[in-house]
TrEMBL record:
GO terms for molecular function: oxidoreductase activity. It comes from Litoreibacter albidus. Gene3D superfamilies: D-Amino Acid Oxidase, subunit A, domain 2 (3.30.9.10), FAD/NAD(P)-binding domain (3.50.50.60). Pfam families: DAO. Keywords: Oxidoreductase. This is D-amino-acid dehydrogenase.
């Protein structure tokens, strides 16, 4: 079949490769090219245990204070608040224990084997060199801070995730990079790292093209409808038609999804990173600094500190305060590190109100499919999402309960 995949991030490229391997004629359409957005700028962690959403019980009480504190990892562009409020009300409405359990059960299916899924996706592509199995560590400055996070660790344990809790001094013997910064470190097992997310996705896309796939650089302007189903894409390069169209446009998915009847409440979570180029030393594994909710990841030739959440929409440029916060935090964490330069980046994460990605057919005939909304775990869950979409289009039932991710839950006629 002829299939168009809209979007060239990790999710779109994964869909395209698995569809190509199934024998289909696949075209990727993207306005900028592979990995030009969040798939370039993420923390590079294959976070198999990322099954606890941001919206935990009590968030609605903490969020206002976090927005007002200069050292908190949550930012808000106040001019955007009127537009954000309806989404925010729904988003905070999911901060319940029942939803945390629902989210954890669903996301465990999607994420638990992320390293194996990446290896399968990258096999024979040349991108294998970027994948390494590693612990994902969480560092706590005090034992009290670790104990305050007991809720999340219990939820991971309930879903079968393995982790070791070690004293800071013991961890320092393994990795001295962080000195005495942490009194407690949690080492999550069966996780992984991508040493250069942008180059990784680019290598996958290059392989896709080398195998006969088509990559078209074009702006998607609109969709043409045929009743409840899609008929064509309208792009800056003209009209494009196919047997099936897959939408993996990340935070830019909302207008098209709504036109297709998938009324998902979706916002951009603006994420930031800074990179230290040619640092004088490297940590051994990715570290989530619990106090600042940012991840320090060793990458090829640079050390990346990525994190922070800012609500401010898709149009405004980067804010200075998140960059300044990351610089302060990294200076406190690694006071003796030397480096050649600092690079700053801001990108957009697609955040549905319930934090669950949207995966599956948009209409009864399966003319179009959604594959977006992975929030903080697009890199982790991208390969498996691509395999699921390829199975659905090929008529195979995936070995996963897709109900929590189904676009149909947002349809008014469902």
């Amino acid at each position: 079949m002829q299939i168009i995949v809209a979007g060239a991030g990790i999710v779109g490229v994964s869909c395209a490769i698995w569809l190509q391997r199934a024998g289909h004629d696949v075209t990727i359409v993207d306005r900028a090219g592979p990995a030009r957005g969040t798939s370039h700028g993420n923390a590079g962690v294959l976070a198999a245990g990322a099954i606890v959403p941001v919206t935990v019980p009590g968030l609605w009480r903490k969020a206002p204070g976090m927005v007002l504190r200069p050292d908190a990892p949550l930012f808000l562009r106040w001019s955007y608040l009127p537009k954000l409020l309806p989404f925010l009300a729904r988003y905070l409405g999911y901060a319940t224990d029942a939803h945390v359990d629902h989210y954890g059960a669903a996301m465990s299916q999607l994420l638990h084997d992320s390293v194996e899924q990446h290896r399968a996706l990258a096999a024979g592509t040349g991108a294998e060199r970027f994948i390494s199995p590693e612990d994902f560590c969480f560092g706590y400055a005090t034992r009290a801070a670790f104990e305050a996070d007991a809720y999340g660790w219990q939820k991971r344990k309930d879903n079968g995730y393995a982790f070791d809790v070690v004293e800071g001094a013991t961890f320092r013997d393994y990795d001295p990079a962080f000195g005495d910064a942490f009194e407690v470190v949690v080492r999550c097992k069966n996780h992984g790292r991508i040493s250069d997310p942008g180059k990784y996705v680019q290598a996958l896309a290059d392989h896709f093209v080398a195998q006969g796939g088509t990559l078209t650089i074009a702006q998607i302007d609109d969709v043409e409808m045929d009743g409840p189903a899609i008929a064509a894409l309208r792009t800056s390069q003209g009209e494009m038609r196919a047997d099936h169209i897959v939408f993996a446009l990340g935070p830019w998915s909302k207008p098209i999804a709504h036109k297709l009847g998938v009324k998902v409440p979706l916002e951009s979570e603006r994420g930031y990173h800074i990179e230290l180029i040619n640092p004088s030393f490297m940590p051994k594994a990715p570290m989530m600094v619990a106090s600042g909710k940012f991840v320090v990841t060793p990458m090829d030739g640079r050390l990346r500190a990525a994190g922070v959440v800012e609500f401010g929409g898709l149009e405004a440029g980067p804010s200075r305060a998140p960059f300044a916060l990351l610089r302060r935090q990294l200076k406190r964490l690694l006071p003796d590190i030397e480096y050649d330069d600092v690079v700053e980046w801001m990108g957009h994460r697609p955040a549905p109100a319930d934090s669950l990605p949207v995966i599956g057919p948009n209409d009864a005939a399966g003319r179009s499919y959604s594959a977006f909304g992975h929030q903080h775990v697009g890199l982790t869950g991208g390969p498996k999402t691509g395999r699921i979409i390829a199975d659905l289009i090929g008529g195979t039932t995936p070995n996963i309960d897709l109900a929590p991710f189904a676009p149909a839950k947002y349809r008014s006629d469902a």
